[in-house]
Amino acid sequence: MNCPYCGYGESKVIDSRPADEGNSIRRRRECLSCVKRFTTYETVESLPMVVIKKDGSRQSFDRRKVLGGMMRACEKRPVSMAQLEQIAEEIEQNLQNSLEREISTELIGEQVMDRLKAVDEVAYVRFASVYRQFKDINTFMSELNKLLENK
């Protein structure tokens, strides 16, 4: 690790501790040349995931988009931001663990709906109505009936 002050290539680690809820390691270092201290963070390198949209276009995965969709579905509902962030984190982790680099929006949407159904059924129906693009009241009622049957 090069020193940010003098550019020297060697330093010693003075202190290491977990950071970002255990997702990275914070290291306090001291330059062996100028003796100034600086902090570095070590994280696991994650491969980029590409989302394949319904129209066939591709874009990089963005957890904020998943979170934004859930926030809209949970507007004025008793679902905390912490719960939504936890769900988004779980979905991203699940997708990373699958080792697939190309993920369809269908797979992401199904995972969001599964988790929202467990947290808040109204939010689930709201999300499903946009995600599944209900064309009329019959498809909407069909989804509601499925929800009622599973109770």
TrEMBL record:
Transmembrane segments: none annotated. A zinc finger (unnamed) spans 3-34. InterPro entries: ATP-cone_dom, NrdR-like_N, RNR_NrdR-like. Its cofactor is Zn(2+). Residues 49-139 form the ATP-cone domain. Keywords: ATP-binding, DNA-binding, Metal-binding, Nucleotide-binding, Repressor, Transcription, Transcription regulation, Zinc, Zinc-finger. It holds the Pfam family Zn_ribbon_NrdR. Belongs to the NrdR family. Negatively regulates transcription of bacterial ribonucleotide reductase nrd genes and operons by binding to NrdR-boxes. This is Transcriptional repressor NrdR. It comes from Oscillibacter hominis.
